[in-house]
Every structure is written in structure tokens, then in C-alpha cells.
Amino acid sequence: MAENSPANGAANPAAVTNQAQLNLQKVYTKDVSFEVPNSPKVFQLQGQPGVELNLSQRVNTLGTDVYEVVLSVTVTCKIEENTAYLAEVHQAGIFGITNFDDASRDGVLGTYCPNVLFPYVRQIVSDLVQGGGFPPLFLQPINFDAIYAEQLRRRAEASAEGQALNS
Question: Which domain does 106 fall in, by range?
Fold first, then answer.
């Protein structure tokens, strides 16, 4: 007697649909800003530029198992007390995340998704800075796993402190 099995070799199609799945649906630039508030005098200043990087992330729920992750980067460069330039990029992605438990989903949104978006941010910032007449700026890789672990640690401490106050 012939055996009924799926053509693709999957043992059970229902089991495949219950597996955790992550897909990148779209990557896009949500907002970009570049300012040189002290031009043209800033190009004549001498001194070592100081660069400050601010990073943030926001997650928006778009629908069932669909999330928008927005990675925001602000780079401020100063020479002495004068702002040479200010670059701000909001890079976004839409991610489908299904069949993950809450902790795993939060981990994916806090680590994997920003890691996907960061190379786009790095390229845009580099292009903006160089196009603004400044030497290229290459943002160093960021360890989003360590940032997420630190956020979890702080939440746990805050929760423990809150419980201690209520006791």
C-alpha cells in the first residue's frame, strides 16, 4: 500500500506551522535629519572633534505577530563648544514573529531586530557626515545582546526594590 507523505519531506505540516518563525517583511528609513548649525565657520575651527552617540529603540505592535522596530541614532559632533554637525536617523523594520513565548519574543525584538537595522543606520550616518563636508564617520558595532541583558537586569532590580517597598 502506498504511504501518504508530503512532497517536500515534512513529517507533519501542522507541526511546521507551530514552530517559531521570524521573518523580515520590510526595512525602511522613517526619518533622517542632518544639521550643520555653525557653518561655514565650523570648517575653519581647529581642534579635536568630540563625537557623542545616543541610541534608542522603540517597538510598535502593528497587528497579531507583526511588529515595527525603530532604531534611532543621534550623533552629535562638537569642536570645542561648537556643534559641528548633528545627524539623526530613525531606521525601521517590520518583523513577523510567530509562535515565540513572551520572553523569547521580547529577546528577538530587543536584540536580533536592532542588529538587522544597525548596518543601515551606520551607512546612512556615514553618507550624511561625508556629504556634509566632514571626514567619514564609521560607527563601531554595537552589542545589542549586552544592552538587552542590562535592561533585563535593571528591570529585575526595579521589581525587587518595588517588592521590598511593598513589604
Answer: 20-159
**How confident is the model over 134-167, as pLDDT tens digits?**
998 999 999 999 999 998 898 888 877 776 666 5
Across-strand partners of 32? 89
Query: Is the pTM higher than 0.70?
Result: yes
- Phi, psi for residue 135 in degrees, rounded to 5: -60, 150
Which tens digit of pLDDT belongs to each residue from 80-91? 889 999 999 999
Residue 7 lies in a domain: no
Task: Count the domains in the chain.
Answer: 1
DSSP assignment string, the chain? ------TT--S-HHHHHTS-EEEEEEEEEEEEEEE-TTTTGGGG--S-EEEEEEEEEEEEEEETTEEEEEEEEEEEEEETTEEEEEEEEEEEEEEEEES--HHHHHHIIIIIHHHHHHHHHHHHHHHHHHHTTS----PPP--HHHHHHHHHHHHHHHHHHHHHHH-
